[in-house]
Amino acid sequence: MRTRFGNFILNSPNLVPMPIGIYAGLEITGASVRQSVMDAHAQSEAVQALHERFNTPVMLTAMDLSVEAEEFGCEIRMTEDEIPTVIGRKVTSLAEIDRLPDPVIGSARSVVSLETARMLLSSVKGIPVLGGVIGPFSLAGRIFGVSESLEVSLTEPEVLKALLEKVTRYLIRYLTAFREAGVHGVIMAEPAAGLLSPRGLSQFSSVYVKRIIESTVTPEFTVVLHNCGAKLVHLPKVLEAGAEIFHFGALMDIGQALTQVGEDIILSGNLDPTGVFHNGNPQEVTARTRELLQAAAGHSNFIPSSGCDIPPHSPLGNLAAFYDTIRG
Amino acid sequence: MDAKISEIFDAIVNGEAASAKQYVQSALDDGLDAEVILNEGLVASMKEVGRLFEEGEYFVPEMLISARAMQAGMNILRPVLIEQDIKPSGKVVIGTVRGDLHDIGKNLVSMMLEGAGFQIVDLGTDVAPEKFLEAVAEHKPDILGMSALLTTTMSNIEATIRFFEEKGVRNDVKIIVGGAPITQAYADKIGADGFAPDASQAAALAKRLMGKA
User: What digits encode the pLDDT tens for the residues A198-256?
Assistant: First the structure.
């Protein structure tokens, strides 16, 4: 289904730069990472600061992949300067999965994400807003343990599937809440699925993402499926999810991927967020961005982006170099 | 390859922990040499797993269950190796640095190193420089491995190396580093002895540093 965001991308006269990451905005506002993930005002201000500085054509809420797990009751470690991390395992068996309650949307920090989206929509008119959410396999991994999820995908797949059923129902409700807030869509981050084999990715990620997409996408609301662990060998199985837009990390051969998917599917990515945006300098960012544009040359169904979330304390000059290079 | 060794090899490559345990015990019961079981069964099978990973046939889940199978076999074999005073390829102290709770990469490296015949002392996650120093003093490893996933914690790898320098013990141990934000250039810059981009290559790196590759 073609959505208004897909049309916005395809009908733009030039490529639409869309690096992922609001944390660079904290360099402008002076708020801490903790404030930005706890307070919708702080998060919204960081996104708007980036918009004002770089005239960002799309505004994104934070990629904070502990939000949903916290809503399931997982313990979270939070410090001033780091993106929150899930600690330990909430469930370790099929019986515990069965007993895991379905969370109420807004019972923890999803309320911050949803409120940030509403604030952005009301304060900056006419600019598409995308919410940030986690994907089903990655959420299951945070609840059951990532290593353990990977292992049981081979040894006890029925255990993993029971949890995936539960998180999928929750994610459908969470995405529906984003849709009702009026955003153009969400970026669904499914990084852990890139650790699976292509067959495993199909079985334990794409099947569930597809169900979420079929339950939530409308002409007004899209799902951008992000997988920063996927390589070209995963591509056909990632595409099974049926998203309108796929966002990949630095491991993906974007030029080859664009050739393989055809013109109906929009791809995005994939400059290394750490190596290029965080550790690089403006000259290196310019060079890598030019290489990316060259790899994607001739494809209007492409959104130049970082390959994943740009880390906190990445130099703003590197972001400027990225935008300047794309805008010529 | 001896049929008993072949059974062990196949069980580990296929990630069958119960079978690996059973076949190692059976091989010992039949009087096979423990060092042969180690090198031709456990170490060789994990080398094969590393090859399959590098060639894109195996992915992380397959590596994890093979490593579990190897560990199941090793738990049976280890007391015999100790009893016969058969030395490991080397000793490695490993941990994720202070402030960082991520352990998948570190665990995979530990498993592959163990599968390459190294003795592992795993300090876990969020390991302070002082704790690394204490562990090196206590265990006297050949290699210290440090991991970080976050850009905000990768600087603690360098901080730990500087701490070792301040204490005058930097040259007592080879230091290898890894993790998503780490590159060869960063490893060189902070004065590490080696960097590997994945667990399979970490095992090869450790062997090179021990002069055994």
Answer: 999 999 999 999 999 999 999 999 999 999 999 999 999 999 999 999 999 999 999 99
CATH number at residue A50: 3.20.20.210
Report the alpha-carbon angle B19-B25-B31, nearest 5: 135
Residue whose structure tokens are 């021990």? B210
* Residue spans of alpha helices (H) in A79-135: 94-99, 110-123
Residue A80 at interface with chain B, using a CB cutoff of 8 Å = no
pLDDT tier, B212 (very low <50, low <70, confident <90, very high otherwise): low
Domain that holds residue A275: 4-327
- The verdict on B178 touching A (C-beta cutoff 8 Å) is no
- Which residues of A fall within a CB distance of 8 Å from B148? none
Biggest CA–CA distance in chain B, Å, is 53
Task: Summarize pLDDT for B33-90 with one digit per residue, the tens.
Answer: 999 999 999 999 999 999 999 899 999 999 999 999 999 999 999 999 999 998 888 9
State how far the Cα of A140 lies from the Cα of A150, in Å rounded to an integer. 10
Of B184, B180, B181, B141, which is closest to residue B164 (Cα–Cα)? Answer: B141
Considering its fold, how many domains does chain A have in total? Answer: 1
C-alpha separations of B101 from A83, A91, B148, B183, B202 in Å: 12, 18, 9, 20, 20
Residue contact A311–B181, C-beta within 8 A: yes
Interface A–B counts its CB contacts (< 8 A) at 63
Q: What percent of chain A has pLDDT over 90?
A: 95
Residue A135 pLDDT greater than 90, yes or no: yes
What structural domains and CATH numbers belong to chain B? Answer: 3-83 (1.10.1240.10), 90-209 (3.40.50.280)
Contacting residues for A197 by C-beta, under 8 A, at least 6 apart: B58, B59, B61, B62
* Confidence band, pLDDT 50/70/90 cuts, at residue B213: low
Closest residue of chain B to A88, computed from CA coordinates: B101
The minimum CA-CA distance between B186 and chain A, rounded to whole Å, is: 9
Overall average pLDDT of the A77-88 stretch: 89
Which residue among A85, A154, A274 sits closest to B62, beta carbon to beta carbon? A154
* 8 Å CB contact between A248 and A296: no
Among chain A residues, the shortest Cα distance to B60 is held by A195
Looking at CA atoms only, how far is residue A6 from chain B in angstroms? 31
Distance from CA of B86 to the nearest CA of A (A): 31
Q: State phi, psi for B143 to the nearest 5 degrees.
A: -135, 140
- Specify the pTM: 0.92
Question: Which residues lie closer than 8 Å to A104 by C-beta, 6 or more apart?
Answer: A71
- In DSSP notation, B193-210 reads SEE-SSHHHHHHHHHHHT
Q: What is the mean pLDDT of residues A260-280?
A: 93
